[in-house]
Specification:
Its cofactor is Zn(2+). Helix 7 runs parallel beside helix 12. With about 625 residues, the protein is of the alpha+beta class. The protein has 21 helices and 13 strands.
Length: about 625
């Protein structure tokens, strides 16, 4: 049943979009053949009457001539080098140039189809090889990424040229006319797409991994540092070079460079959550730490460090393909390859998590690993619930007080049915690994915990926490929570400005705080523009235009001047059109950007209000 339900999603989400890679080449293949047939037919239709009217030919010669021209196509004569068709080729003269174009486009289209098939085989083989082992995973991705980015660049260039060629011949062949503007637009789009792809191939990806935390110097927690080193000695792995403390609902270890507080830390870095340490007994926290050190021992972090730049470069490349317009079919193909590779990543990462759990159980105990998993999973889920509830509220909060709400409400949550539902499929949040479900992890360390056992573990008071070993634990928490809650409040404040359809003065003032009334001066009197969160008006218009009236907004150039054209809902093509001459404003670009910002707010508000109404 599971595979049946997932197959349509994979088919629609990855396979079918990836096949768009072949759409234009296959159409070009058909069109080139169709154009050659039309060319051959026209030539034959011109030759046959001449042969039939030629009185110097005997009946036998006439039949032989007709048979020759019907069997030897004009396109074959133009493209080929057969000496028997040399006279035919010479008589066709300049007309052959069209047939030569059709022939070249046929070859280009066929080459793109073949390249697509080869690319699909490379993607499939490299994707499957990634399942063999970790070394194969890295090697297969490097090979696949190296080959496919070149192949995709060739596809973009080839399909761009094919599209430009079709923009001329599509109309010329079927309608006996062509549009220079269409050819120029398609040609420019192709050039831009190729340029974007080439730059993306050589662009160095941003690898900044910034963590909201503070560096825990050894002098600030000597006992804790000593315990970490003891665990590492037991596991026979070098200790971390740095320890960071924060308030995120997770623990992790990495060998990638980490930015924290304006500093860049290199080497092995361990992140610990003070909030979670307060919830864990020392033995349970040591189980978590042993798990993280197990990633260092198993080479997981080293593998991640090597692979991360490649994945980041690939992600940036995908973003470029998505934004490139004509590159979208290539984007969907590359997404399908990334999806296949992510399956292998998920498989190996889950295996690494289970191995690290078993290692932690050997160092501490299976019961301590199990209890730590339950506590971390429950805390993460409850905090997410609290933050989602706060962010979903449609009134301003004087104080979000997330830390206090989580601390005061956790006991009630631990006794509710909600915690059981959450823990049944709980996956601990983590920036590097795909964690297996809680039930699988408990079975992996040989521990069975029923719902009552989990509730008991969550409600038992903590007798001794490693957070107590930090000299400034409370001060660090206060600083980090203060900064986090401030950002949360700002984000919620902005979200309300996008949600409100103001129904009172308070809501109106809140929206206007983020979207204040604006005025845009004109170079000459009578062209000034005013705008607020609900409407835009121009001195030349009889009345303002409400944003809810705007069906579409486009910028265009006419007679060397730039305009913003608005098409209004429920009106005719001409009566429902309003325009602002951007060239007559002192800062037309500023108005255009502000208009897009304000219109975007209005449409976001409409969508939110619509969904809220449906939910109600």
């Amino acid at each position: 049943m599971r595979s049946t339900s997932k197959t349509p999603g994979v088919l629609r989400g990855y396979v079918l979009p990836a096949l768009l890679l072949f759409a234009l080449p296959l159409f070009g293949l058909w069109f080139a053949g169709h154009a050659q047939d039309r060319f051959d037919t026209r030539v034959l239709e011109a030759i046959e009457p001449q042969i039939l009217r030629d009185k110097q030919l005997s009946e036998t010669e006439r039949e032989e001539a007709l048979a020759f021209f019907r069997s030897a196509s004009a396109s074959e004569a133009c493209i080929g080098s057969n000496e028997e068709l040399a006279n035919f080729r010479a008589n066709l003269g300049d007309a052959c140039s069209d047939a030569v174009q059709f022939g070249w486009m046929y070859r280009l289209s066929l080459g793109l189809v073949v390249l697509g098939v080869v690319s699909a085989l490379i993607a499939l083989l490299c994707g499957l090889a990634a399942f063999i082992s970790r070394s194969f995973q890295y090697g297969s991705f490097v090979v696949g990424w190296s080959l496919l980015r070149v192949a995709s660049a060739v596809q973009v260039a080839g399909q761009g040229g094919l599209a430009a060629w079709l923009s001329f011949w599509g109309t010329a062949l079927w309608f006996q006319r062509y549009s220079p503007k269409l050819i120029i637009v398609v040609g420019l789009m192709a050039v831009v797409a190729v340029g974007m792809v080439v730059m993306a191939i050589f662009k160095r990806p941003s690898m900044d991994f910034e963590v909201e935390a503070e560096v825990l110097e050894e002098s600030a927690a000597p006992e804790f540092w000593a315990q970490v080193r003891t665990l590492c000695e037991h596991l026979r792995t070098p200790p971390p070079d740095h320890i960071l403390v924060g308030i995120d609902a997770n623990f992790f270890v990495t060998e990638s460079d980490v930015r924290v507080g304006g500093r860049t830390l290199s080497g092995r870095t361990l992140f610990v959550s003070i909030s979670l340490l307060r919830l864990l007994e020392r033995g349970e926290a040591e189980a978590v730490l042993a798990h993280e050190m197990g990633h260092l021992l198993g080479g997981d972090t080293g593998h991640g460090k090597r692979l991360a730049p490649k994945l980041a470069h690939f992600s940036d490349y995908l973003g470029t393909l998505y934004e490139g317009g004509m590159t979208r079919p290539v984007y969907y193909f590359m997404v399908a390859y990334r999806g296949l590779f992510e399956l292998s990543l998920g498989k190996s990462r889950r295996a690494s998590e289970l191995a690290a759990d078993r290692l932690a159980a050997e160092v501490t105990s299976g019961n301590e690993v199990a209890r730590s998993l339950v506590k971390v999973g429950a805390y993460a889920n409850f905090r997410e619930r609290v933050e989602a509830d706060l962010f979903g509220r449609n009134e301003q909060q004087q104080s979000v007080a997330i830390a206090r709400r989580v601390a005061h409400g956790f006991a009630a949550y631990a006794q509710s049915e909600a915690v059981r539902d959450d823990l049944q499929g709980a996956v601990t949040p983590h920036p590097f690994d795909s964690h297996p479900p809680l039930a699988m992890r408990l079975e992996n360390v040989g521990v069975k915990l029923g719902p009552d056992d989990m509730t008991q573990a969550l409600l038992e008071p903590v007798e001794s926490s490693w957070a107590e070993a930090f000299l400034e634990a409370e001060a660090i928490e206060a600083r980090l929570w203060g900064a986090y809650e401030s950002r949360f409040s700002e984000a919620h404040d902005m979200a309300l400005a996008y949600r409100y359809r103001p129904s009172n003065d308070e809501e109106r003032q809140h929206v206007e705080k983020h979207f204040p009334p604006l005025e845009f001066a004109a170079k000459e009197e009578g062209h000034e523009v005013q705008m607020d969160f609900a409407q835009v008006s121009c001195a030349q218009w009889e009345e303002p235009v409400l944003f809810e009236q705007v069906k579409s907004a486009t910028s265009a150039e006419r007679l060397f001047k730039k305009y913003l054209d608005l098409q209004l809902e429920g009106a005719g093509l001409f009566k429902g059109k309003r325009s602002v001459c951007l060239s007559k404003l002192e800062d037309g670009d500023a108005f255009l950007n502000a208009f897009g910002h304000y219109l975007g707010r209005h449409r976001t508000m409409q969508e939110y209000q619509s969904k809220s109404g449906e939910a109600a």
